[in-house]
Design brief:
With 174 residues, the chain is an all-alpha fold. It has a single domain, classed as Up-down Bundle (Four Helix Bundle (Hemerythrin (Met), subunit A)). 72% of the residues lie in helices and 0% in strands. The protein is elongated and about 55 Å long. The N and C termini lie far apart (66 Å).
Length: 174
């Protein structure tokens, strides 16, 4: 019984020391600001609208879908990549997440270009279509991982303007 009481007392002392250690909990204010900056870029993706439009028409009118990708979706996806590349971040955490975002947006851009090529062939290349869709799925998973990682650093409350999740990442037939 005394041993248990001694262990409890030691545990309480350790907790007190940890609580008084002066170590800040969670990310720094600068890291939170970096993540919020990146999240704003993430949720205001200019490619979201054009890619939703492509998704609506690509199945029934693949050539039109390819044209919409080439004229709207791909240029908007390029702008999003440029926005992230040109953003400045002051913390290592912010720079790490920005590199993750750049990789995901490059992956999405490659997948969209491949998908436009496949659609221009009126989707007759089944293997190419599968490759394009696989690439888009992988890009979407990378962007969802980015969202999860940003959320781990700076959780957002439900209803928060920054809470919007991944905009249209790619397009896929319904």
């Amino acid at each position: 019984m005394r041993a248990r009481a001694a262990r409890l007392a030691c545990g309480a002392i350790c907790l007190s020391l940890l609580a008084c250690s002066g170590e800040p909990e969670g990310p720094s204010a600068a890291a939170r600001a970096d993540v919020k900056r990146l999240r704003r870029l993430f949720v205001s993706d200019p490619a979201a609208g054009p890619l939703e439009e492509v998704e609506r028409v690509a199945t029934d009118r693949p050539v039109l879908g390819a044209r919409l990708l080439r004229r709207g979706g791909i240029p908007a996806a390029e702008r999003q990549l440029t926005r992230v590349e040109e953003a400045s971040f002051t913390t290592e955490e912010g720079r790490r997440l920005a590199r993750q975002a750049e990789d995901a947006y490059r992956q999405r851009l490659d997948a969209l270009r491949l998908y436009a090529d496949v659609l221009e062939g009126a989707a007759s290349d089944t293997e190419g279509l599968l490759d394009a869709l696989r690439g888009q799925r992988e890009a979407e998973m990378a962007l969802l991982a980015l969202d999860r990682d940003m959320e781990a650093v700076v959780p957002t409350a439900r209803g928060d303007d920054d809470r919007a999740r991944s905009p249209a990442v790619g397009v896929a037939p319904r």
